[in-house]
């Protein structure tokens, strides 16, 4: 349908709200049989890069010198030879240059970031995981809002990636304002996202970048849970 210039996408100084109708696809260096929708990058002021890679069977991500986190949205990929289906993820340390190859048509969420060293702390090694095997934590004791922390709670990691699942009607208990920035991919359901002084209707497929100190709040609406995958810089201020 002709949109006549309308979209829910918006860019403000402290956030980017991006809906699938505005996604632009382009290959990244070294990608084969794959294309990227770059959601957040240093071009907008982020200290990390996040993109959705759409991969054909046999397609592969290009090399990177940075640490890389891969979360499978659809299909099956191999990371360093291990098979990962939907909900499975891999942390690949800087410089390891481990191959990520699609075994079938697949979509993966990729986060890349230069590693920030801390004296006396060893950098993390390769890690594979499965979101369905992560024990959920009730945020602030609210059983309607479950957080699954995908990476180990260790100062070795300079970022965190979590999923947050809101039962219909659940919401953050406060408007958060914090030094960490976020990349946030809506995976399921929807609701209202407050970002700065704007309120957005958010639903599965949307992406949000929140700059440090961007006021933020989410409330789930609908008859099914809302869920998102959220990145934040962590352990390093
Ligand atoms: O981890 C977080 O800061 C998270 N509660 N933020 C958010 O959902 N916008
Ligand atoms: Mn937050």
Structure commentary:
With 237 residues, the protein is mainly β. It has strands spanning 10-12, 15-18, 32-40, 49-60, 67-74, 77-79, 82-84, 88-92, 100-102, 106-113, 127-130, 137-138, 145-149, 159-166, 182-188, 190-195, 198-203, 207-210, 216-220, 226-233. Strand 3 and strand 4 form a beta hairpin. It is globular. The model has no long low-confidence stretch (mean pLDDT 97). Bound molecules: (2S)-amino(carbamoylamino)ethanoic acid and manganese (II) ion. Residues 176, 178, 182, 216 line the site of manganese (II) ion (MN).
User: Are there runs of 5+ residues with pLDDT below 50, and where?
Assistant: none
- Mean pLDDT comes to 97
Cofactors, ions, other ligands: (2S)-amino(carbamoylamino)ethanoic acid, manganese (II) ion
In which range does the helix fraction lie? under 10%
Q: How many whole angstroms does the radius of gyration measure?
A: 17 Å
Write out the strand line-up for the largest beta sheet, numbering strands in chain order: 1-2-18-15-20-14-13-12
User: Main beta sheet, described?
Assistant: 8 strands, antiparallel
SS strand fraction: over 45%
Shape: globular
The secondary-structure element order is EEEEEEEEEEEEEEEEEEEE
Find the count of extended strands (DSSP E, 2+ residues): 20
Please report the distance between the alpha carbons of the first and last residues. 46 Å
Provide a count of the helices: 0
Structural class: mainly beta
